[in-house]
Amino acid sequence: MSPRRPPSMRLKIAVSVTALVLLLILGQALALVFMYEEMEEEFIDSILAEQLEYSIRVSGASEQLALPNTPNMQLYRLRPGEPLPAGLTPELAALPVGNHEIYLGDQEYHLAVRDTPGARFILRYDESEHQARVEAVSTVILSGALILCALVLVLVHALAGRLTRGLENLSTRLAQGRGEAPYAQPDMERELLAVARALDAAELRQRDLLARERDFNAHLSHELRTPLTGIRTDAELLASQTELPEAVRRRASRIMTASDRITSLAESLLLLAREARPAAQWQEDVDLGQALEQSWQSLAPADARLELQLPPGTLLRADPALLNLVLRNLLDNALKHGNGSPVRCRLEGSRLQVQDQGPGFGATDPEQLFARFARQGPAAGHGLGLALVRHICQACGWQATARNAPEGGALLEVEFGRGITISSQVSH
After folding, report:
1. CATH number assigned to the domain comprising residue 330
2. 297 and 211 in one domain?
3. Model confidence over 307-344: pLDDT tens digits?
4. Which domain holds residue 346?
5. Which residues of the chain have pLDDT under 70?
6. What CA–CA distance (Å, rounded) separates 120 from 228?
7. CA 235, CA 253: separation in Å to the nearest integer?
8. Whether 120 contacts 77, CB under 8 Å
């Protein structure tokens, strides 16, 4: 599954402004529709009043002239003792004097009721034509509002693109590296200039911190190398004394080997702290199977078992000391959490997999275990092993991951990429 793209600032600005404009326009449009409908109601009431006044005035001279001349009006005249005219219900005939709005089925009507000596006049108005006019006006207003909002969305999106172009350029420069020119430029907007100046200040602080770390690492390298050289020299003298017991000379040889490993490891780690990637002169073709077996022998008790599933002659171009540190921590983690079961190492393409048969990571996110001082379970150590593995892998261009194995247990993986080669001339 591809990662979800983050939301666009331009789109968020355009949608936010358009939503605000839409609310304002819709509010105004609804107000106009409501006002228009009120004006129509008043207009209908005035027409009914005028028509009913005219009908009452001329009804004495001619009942035919008193009738309205529009098909949407119906005049009823009630005299005492006469039956109700067709189409007039007792409920309508009993309405009080005044103007009324009623529903007959789904149709709305306006009624004007007046009393005169000897008769009651009721004028009924079918307002379907009025409703059609209101709906037509509402459709025009709302359609215009939506069209205007669409134009606002397009225009604001384009304008937001112009406003955020400087931020996009700054992010591009930040990804590529500042170089000699500072991030802050005189033609930047005030807010963007503040961000650029903060980035310049942060980069200067980082450079100063790295310079101090390099100086410290250089002094530390010298301080470590001096006593280690003395220890190795004394061990060489002891190993060369033939009159000493064989056991003492073997211990002296082990001290020499350990001091050489410590010196190589210290130099690799110090180089790693100074450089983004290990230098080419520190790298060589390492037999991955032999490196795994040597790391295992230095860690595992006699009854522990290692299952290697690597093609013979699997070579990896790497710094031996850094690779040994990665393998030792991977195997040590598998030993601690494997409950005494065999540890399986296999190569899938260019990916080394180290699997134990313990309880696995459970519900814990395996990525959290690569953080410094992260621990899991009673057998956890100082919490720096996997963090150091991740740090070395990132510096060497490798990728370290962890997950629960489908068949159970924890599965630690290192993707070496193109550094892996298989030669049939080398075996282990």
Report:
1. 3.30.565.10
2. no
3. 888 888 889 888 888 888 889 888 888 888 877 788 99
4. 280-422
5. 1-9, 65, 177-179, 214, 217-218, 220-222, 261, 264-282, 372-384, 422-428
6. 123
7. 7
8. yes
Distance CA 355, CA 3 (A): 28
- CA–CA distance, 102 with 89 (Å, rounded to integer): 12
How many structural domains are present in the chain?
3
Amino acid at 15: V
**Tell me, what's the pLDDT at 281?**
63
In a domain, 146, yes or no: no
Catalogue the E-assigned strands of 298-398.
Answer: 306-309, 314-318, 343-348, 351-355
Q: What is the pLDDT of residues 174-203, one digit of tens each?
A: 777 666 778 787 777 777 778 888 888 888
For the whole model, what pTM was predicted? 0.44
Residue 113 sits in a domain whose CATH number is: 3.30.450
CA distance 2 to 341: 37
| Gyration radius of the chain over CA positions | 45
Same domain assignment for residues 380 and 308: yes
Whole-angstrom CA distances from 251 to 222, 230, 257, 294 are 26, 16, 10, 19
Q: Measure the CA–CA gap between 264 and 320, rounded to whole angstroms.
A: 9
The answer to whether residues 133 and 238 belong to one domain is no
Q: Has residue 159 been placed in a domain? A: no
The reply to whether 149 falls in a domain is no
Query: In this predicted structure, what is the pLDDT of residue 375?
Result: 57
Helix (H, G, I), strand (E, B) or coil at 374: coil
